[in-house]
What we know:
Layout: E1 11-13, E2 16-18, E3 34-37, E4 41-47, H1 50-55, E5 62-65, H2 73-80, E6 85-89, H3 91-103, E7 109-112, E8 114-115, H4 119-130, E9 134-135, E10 138-139, E11 147-153, E12 156-162, H5 177-185, E13 188-191, H6 200-212, E14 216-220, H7 224-229, H8 231-237, E15 243-247, H9 248-257, H10 265-274, E16 285-290, E17 293-299, E18 302-306, H11 322-334, H12 340-354
Parallel strand pairs: 3-7, 3-13, 4-11, 5-12, 7-9, 8-10, 13-14, 14-15, 15-16
Antiparallel strand pairs: 1-2, 4-6, 11-12, 16-17, 17-18
Amino acid sequence: MADKNENSSLEHTNGDTQPATKKIKTDYIREGVLLGYGNPLLDIQVVGTAEFLKKYDLEANNAILAEDKHKPMYDDMTKSFTDVQYVPGGATLNSIKVAQWLIEKPNATTFFGCVNKDTYGKILVDKACEMGVKMQLQNTEKEPTGTCAVIVTGENRSLCANLAAANCFTEDHLDNAENWKLVETADFYYCAGFPLTVSPPTILRLAKHSHENGKTFCMNLSAPFLCQFFKDKMLQVLPYADIIFGNETEAATFSKENELGTEKIPEIALKMAAMGKENKDKPRMVVITQGDLPVVVAYEGKVEEFPIIPIKSKDIVDTNGAGDAFVGGFLSQLVQKKPLATCVKCGNYAANLVIQRSGCTVPEKPDFS
């Protein structure tokens, strides 16, 4: 077992929060330093019509989980529209691929999830690998690869997600020697909250491994319904979480469900940071985004606020994926031992860039400095 302080990810120096010094150059990142587990989905995006939405009983500006009546829609989209875009997605993979893009070292990131070896699965894997992510996936024949329909009509976007194969992930993926070696290789771990609906034991096992080896485990509240209906599963992981991400709506729901007694985001962040933690020598950090309001960070009993990058409403194309991109930007600097201010700055850079594009996509090269 490693010294619990050897890989500590955050420390205070001269009053500033910054990553601890490690025996590697800060401009060098080795392969596999960041590992994520989540629900991989292939986003299938088209510019649609009101008639197509009506055909599948969809609203123009909404996000839902697919029912049986929606399942034929994904193939129908590819046949009915000529300009079809395929983007590897799902909350965790979005963050991992953005981090990978910013790190610019192939295979610096690893992703665990479950897909089918079907056409959509191949597209998802190929496109994520093209970005440099090491896709170490479990395969299933029980369900097709998970998909998310993104139907654009004017300024509106209708999202309909079919988790399918993503729901089939099982903890025994970690029992494979090659996969567990990748877990041991990583120093940082990230899970969105959504896999709490699929394989809580996997998240908990990664979190405990991180704790026992002095590494850094990060999680995300991800959605209000997770804070409500998967509260018990979430609270099992929380004691091992070194960094918790979320937005203001998720934070408010978490506060209500856990009776924190406040609706003020800075106070919620402080109380979340102070909740029970297994490694009491390593303070928890809580990072809450608030749309066009400052990012709130609670750490070691203090709260800091960081302004976002201003953007005109006419320049906003698609806000979906902005939170995932923020986390990816933050993590890309965290694994390089950059100061907190730089981590947040890069998170804001990534979010600002993504909301000016369609879907959680990025240009060929980053220009963050």
